[in-house]
Design a protein that fits this description.
Length: 138
């Protein structure tokens, strides 16, 4: 399977997301179901691209706008789009401590600079860990 599958068009590193990792970990699946209040059958995610932008752990019933836009514009990643960055990348504080969506711009910048393979190898997991456990620096 090509590595592009592990990164959503928006730059989210699906391959390192606990919801994706729960596919192969029954214990993690149960834990996430309990902690997040998600029905156990909706916990495991097969990554954005495989799910066609409809992430059931988020109780989505239609594709995310970013996924739909990337498909309509024919780009692998939003950073490849002539309109990037657009208003879909406005960061929000709502749930920022729980959901790493504010990482998207950083991730897309690295994908554009390094390429997706190198990004996955060197930054995808590290960026998520720093987001949740690192200390703010200027």
């Amino acid at each position: 399977m090509e590595s592009t599958h592990l990164i959503a068009p928006c730059g989210m590193a699906c391959g390192d997301c606990p919801m994706h990792l729960a596919k192969d970990s029954p214990g993690l699946k149960i834990s996430l179901s309990d902690k997040q209040g998600i029905p156990i059958e909706n916990v495991a995610c097969d990554c954005c691209r495989e799910e066609k932008g409809v992430i059931c752990c988020n109780e989505m019933t239609s594709p995310c706008d970013v996924f739909t836009c990337s498909q309509e514009k024919g780009v692998q990643f939003c950073c490849d789009c002539k309109d990037f960055p657009c208003d879909r990348y406005q960061p929000y504080a709502d749930r920022a401590a729980e959901v790493p969506h504010n990482l998207k711009m950083y991730s897309l910048g690295l994908i554009k600079k390094l390429g997706v393979e190198e990004f996955i190898k060197t930054h995808a997991k590290q960026a998520r860990e720093i987001y949740f456990k690192g200390k703010f620096k200027l």
